[in-house]
Amino acid sequence: MNIGKYNTDWSEEKYRRFLKEGRGQGEGKDYKPWLTVQDFPSKGRCHRIFGWKTGRIHHLFTDSEARFFYLLEWEDSVIDIREHFPLLDYEDWVQDREDLRFDLFTDKKSGTPYVISTSFLITVKNREGNVRYVARSLKAASELEKRISLERLEIERRYWEARGIDWGIVTNKDIPLVKARNIEWIHSARYAYADAGLSEGDLAELVEAFLLRLSQSSESIRKTALLFDKDYVLVPGTGMFLFRYLLAIKKIEVNMDEPIDLNRPAFSVDIINATAKKGGKAYAGG
């Protein structure tokens, strides 16, 4: 989705309207990001993605933000993702700010200061049930050479340090593209069974049948899915949807750090039981 031209003027009136709309407030499904894709133009492509964790639409301005979001969705320890989190109470937390160049972040026309926001505030719960927060700022690697970007990041750093919250910078070079693209490919399948023409009852029955077929088939994943459609007289593509769905709910497992090979034998796919523990690299700092 490409963003067209929008009114990007900033004023005290607009600031008050954002607050009245509840932006930057709430958690989970009730959270409203400070910025949405309708508010400001993007240098790249913007994304509106329905979140697994939150059950709401997330507003992401770049491909890097979307890819990092997919990585967070994949992490079992992540229970909430709040994008474009505003530092509205900055003065309450940061006393040492005299040397910070807030004047660089002021609307030239109205003179109204912009609200600095951090790309992601992430809620993480460990296996013992302890909850902590992690803040991450997404920046293109090339942006780190610009003074204004460094100034903004220093403003963010001091805020999160004052709050005692783990903060860090993530660039496009830090994001494993293959894994992010794999998650993107399966992501929409998790809640799209109705779009595939299936009821919850249909889905439950077909999942068990497809798992059995996967475990016994020496054909490729692709061909196994095609034959499954034919044998069960299903709409073409249903078998591949089931494969994506099972990956999304982690009922089956492939190496997500490598391109998903649909030509590998179906029986080589790992079928995971409900109590299996997941490992792997964490992208939320834990």
Automatic annotation (TrEMBL):
Record keywords, A-Z: Endonuclease, Hydrolase, Nuclease
Record domain TnsA endonuclease C-terminal: where: 174-256
Domain TnsA endonuclease N-terminal: 76-171
InterPro entries membership: Restrct_endonuc-II-like, TnsA_C, TnsA_N, tRNA_endonuc-like_dom_sf, WH-like_DNA-bd_sf
Pfam families reported for this sequence: Tn7_Tnp_TnsA_C (PF08721), Tn7_TnsA-like_N (PF08722)
Any one Gene Ontology molecular-function term assigned to this protein's record: endonuclease activity
Gene3D superfamilies documented for this protein: 3.40.1350.10, Winged helix-like DNA-binding domain superfamily/Winged helix DNA-binding domain
Name of the protein in its database record: TnsA endonuclease
